[in-house]
Amino acid sequence: MVYPPSFTATSVLRGLTFEPADSGNDVIVATFVKSGTTWTTYLLHLIRAIAAGATLEQADAFDDIQQVVVELTWAYDCGQDPHNWIQPFEKIARIFKSHLSPSFATELHGDKAKYVFVLRDPLDVLCSEFNFFQPKVSNAPWIKHLATVDDFAKSDHWNDHAWFFNNGNVYEYHRQAWELRDLPNVMLVCFEDLKEDLPREVARLAQFMGVADRIDADACHKIADVASHAAMRSKREKFDEHWMSQQQVELGRFGPHGPNETAEKVTTNGTTGAGKRALSPEVAAAVQRAWSETVGLSSYEEMRSKIGVLAALREGYFVR
Question: Which stretches make up the Sulfotransferase domain (predicted)?
Answer without folding.
Answer: 25-294
